[in-house]
Fold this protein.
Amino acid sequence: MTREDMLARLIAQATTEGAELVTLRAMVEEASEVGADRVLHRLGLGDEGAQDDIDELRELLRAWRDAKASAWKAAVDWIVRGILAALLIGIAVRAGLPELLR
């Protein structure tokens, strides 16, 4: 029995016997499951390989975040090194080192 069939039976039961709380809860649960299945199928994630696809996407996203973080770290390191090199050159010029080398 599919979820759609179960939902149809619950609706029929609620119509004929009255809607008890248990029946209403079951209807809501089945309707939610049917809706979720429809959304997954529309997104292309309704097949058996969908979990593998999502796992690969998560791994790819994690790798992208790691690469982005290390790129920022490398950029900051190079900027700090450039500033320190400029300071050393400035100190050497102030100290008269170019004149001593002539």
Remarks:
- The CA atoms of residues 92 and 101 lie 11 Å apart.
